[in-house]
Specification:
With 286 residues, the protein is α+β, with helices and mostly antiparallel strands. It folds into 2 domains: 163 residues, Jelly Rolls, CATH 2.60.120; 105 residues, Orthogonal Bundle (Arc Repressor Mutant, subunit A). Helices cover 44% and strands 16% of the residues. It contains 11 helices and 9 strands. Strand 1 and strand 2 form a beta hairpin. Helix 5 packs across helix 6.
Length: 286
């Protein structure tokens, strides 16, 4: 870290509404606080000059210099102790609900709840100064907060999400310029998030999107994304893992919750993607 670097953290809580917002420019000093709220979405930014590695849902995430990662409350994150300069912005749905306000920022299906379990974005050099100034504004607002403090933080968060969404449209989805295709993929991802317990076939989603299953699969193939059916299955498996790790529900109960008529059907799908039966996966948890 640079010698003139000063570690800071700020937190805003409203006990009446449950609203929560947290900002730090140094998670190495405030790691416990950064991960303290299990209902929070998180945006992590590697402002250092070395790669930063952590684990998300059993996957290793590598943040290179000036890369962002967007995580939802659904992601199970393990961050090792380190001394790298990582900025974290955390907020819950009571502070700003990205689902209810999707019409404002259009980030769902790209930054959050997307075809990928999480999004990793590289900030273009031409935009780096704008992002640095934006984080400076977060700090300034905490230092000079008044009666409009919360509203100002929401406004800054929306600007950050919109800027990241613009980058994500180019970097996460391998299509540039075709706005209709990007929007179709984004809507599919969001529909999967909302309906994966009820709908498990591509045809059900293509009907909601008013597009043929063949055309939908072609869009994902051209965008170099996982096939739509695999996207549906991966979301089911992610939820199953969370329930196996963090609840006491039986495999049969989890199967019912995820909308399977037969627990053997669920177990077969789970083993296909993880290499383990649900029972074995739970027994080997850390």
């Amino acid at each position: 870290m640079k010698s003139n670097f000063k570690s800071i953290q700020y937190e805003l809580k409203d006990p009446l509404t449950g609203s929560y917002f947290y900002f730090t420019n140094d998670i190495s000093s405030y790691l416990e606080n950064t991960l303290a709220n299990p209902t929070a979405n998180r945006i992590l930014w590697n402002q250092g000059d070395e790669n930063f590695n952590f684990t998300c849902d059993e996957n290793t995430v590598v943040l290179t210099e000036n890369s962002f990662c967007t995580l939802t409350a659904l992601n199970y994150v393990k961050i090792p102790e380190n001394n790298q300069r990582i900025t974290a912005i955390c907020f819950n749905r009571e502070f700003y609900c990205i689902r209810d306000h999707d019409h404002e920022v259009s980030c769902n299906g790209i930054l959050f709840y997307g075809a990928q379990k999480f999004a990793v974005l590289k900030i273009p050099n031409t935009e780096l100064l704008a992002f640095e100034k934006l984080t400076d504004l977060f700090v300034k607002e905490f230092e000079e907060g008044d009666s409009l403090h919360s509203e100002m933080l929401v406004s800054l968060l929306k600007i950050l999400i919109i800027r990241l969404t613009r980058i994500g449209r180019n970097q996460i989805i391998g299509i540039q310029g075709d706005k209709q295709t990007i929007e179709t993929i984004r809507k599919f991802n969001l529909l999967v998030e909302e309906n994966f317990r009820s709908y498990k076939q591509i045809s059900e989603y293509s009907f909601l999107l008013n597009i043929s299953s063949k055309k939908l699969a072609e869009l994902f193939r051209n965008a170099k994304l996982d096939p739509p059916l695999q996207t549906i299955h991966q979301r089911i498996i992610l939820e199953a893992k969370r329930m196996l790790l963090f609840t006491l529900k039986s495999v049969n109960e989890i199967s019912d919750d995820l909308g399977f008529e037969d627990a053997s059907q669920f177990s077969k799908l789970f083993k296909k993607y993880t290499g383990k039966s649900p029972g074995i996966f739970r027994s080997k948890k850390n």
